[in-house]
Amino acid sequence: MRRPWARHGTGHYYAFDDTEAWLTVRCSKTAVRELMRVAWRTVGSIITRVSADAMARTDRFANLTRIGIDEISYKKGHRYLTVIVDHNSRRLIWAAPGRDKATLNMFFDELGPDRCAAITHVSADAADWIADVVAVRCPAAVQCADAFHAVKWATEALDEVRRGVWNTARATARTEPGRRRGQPRADAPPRRGSDLARGLKNSRYAVWKNPENLTVRQGAKLEWIARTDPRLYRVYLLKEGLRMVFVLKGEAGKEALDRWVSWARRCRIPAFVDLQKRIVRHRKTNDATLDHGLSNGLIESTNTKIRVLTRMAFGFTKPEARVALAMLALSGYCPPLLGRGTPE
Q1: How wide is the angle at C-alpha 83 spanned by C-alphas 79 and 87, nearest 5°?
Q2: FRET pair for 179, CA 20 to 30 Å: which of 118, 211, 227, 275?
Q3: What is the rounded distance in angstroms from the CA atom of residue 197 to the CA atom of residue 225?
Q4: How many whole angstroms separate alpha carbon 319 and alpha carbon 95?
């Protein structure tokens, strides 16, 4: 006989499952298992059921117009989840295992043609599998490139140059006169390669970080680089120049991006010549980002929270349980603690 307070076929009350889900969002899986006296795999099954019930009762795609799309690695071996957020409500609205066109098409199939047509803006990185699907399923939507990834490309190009300078300095130091070990002789000439290699050691964060976030030591290291290696300092300025483009936004940002592309094209530094070609290739989506001010900052924050949840609930082997946990915690579907009010 069915009872309104019991979940059919599971042997648990609804209240028990809701309490378990509430605890799983906030505690480690081991703590929940020991407190509630359930089997290890049962925790994942419970939150999957609770999440499915909550989503069935809610229209999470209502009034959806601006979305962000990204992927997150959840396991070694190139295992990914595709994650989608609503920029207006600032909540996670969909996630599924996979990182390809088929996975993303599942979301748009669930969304339906009418709601696909209502999407006005989509933020994402430069992945072709996202851009191609969005162009077909939401042809009227404005695609905005993620400024974070553009600056990340610049940082990677900077680090490529920094490593090259360091390796060259180390190789030069081996051929310079002076003692191999200990202090050089008093009458030995200065060893520029050795001094440069020693100075560039541990300089990564000095050139990576934004100027306002530098420590005193990192600021001093950056000043030393400016005096000692003007080419590496010019690379740092190129990275900072691209970052400032996305700080300015609008027409000022687009004008600054024009100047930056011209500068990078003439800099004769291969890593940044290649980077400007990549930026030009995605110029349309970069301009859309500058015009509309949309970025993947929200979804990057969501991905960070998913990683934290996964570490807390260490032990989930199935991606469905990870998705259910993320939906409960980041979509507003987590049930309230019994007798403590409305869901969060």
Answers
A1: 160
A2: 227
A3: 11
A4: 10
The structure tokens 């190009």 sit at 157
pLDDT digits (tens, 9 = 90+) for 193-250: 566 777 777 788 888 898 899 999 999 989 988 988 889 999 999 999 999 999 998 9
- Cβ(60)–Cβ(93) below 8 Å: yes
- Residue 140 vs residues 78, 107, 133, 282: alpha-carbon distances, Å: 32, 17, 13, 18
Domain boundaries, the chain: 1-57+321-344, 66-146, 148-176+190-292
Which H helix or E strand runs over 111?
helix 101-111
What are the φ and ψ backbone dihedral angles of 67, each rounded to 5 degrees? -125, 155
Sequence-distant (≥ 6) Cβ neighbours of residue 61 within 8 angstroms: 93, 110, 111, 115
What tokens appear for 92 in the block?
């996670």
What single DSSP character describes residue 189? P
* Contact of 46 with 20, CB cutoff 8 Å: yes
pTM of the shown model: 0.79
CA pair distance 268, 234, nearest whole angstrom: 11
Query: Pairing state of beta strands 79-86 and 66-75?
Result: antiparallel
- Please count the helices (runs of H) and the strands (runs of E) in the chain: 16, 7
Taking the C-alpha atoms of residue 271 and residue 154, their distance in angstroms, rounded to an integer, is 9
In words, the CATH class of domain 66-146 is: alpha beta
Strands of the sheet with 121-124, listed across from one edge? 91-97, 79-86, 66-75, 121-124, 142-145
Count of C-beta atoms within a 10 Å radius of residue 171: 11
Q: Are 200 and 173 in contact (CB under 8 A)?
A: no
Token reading at 38 = 């359930």
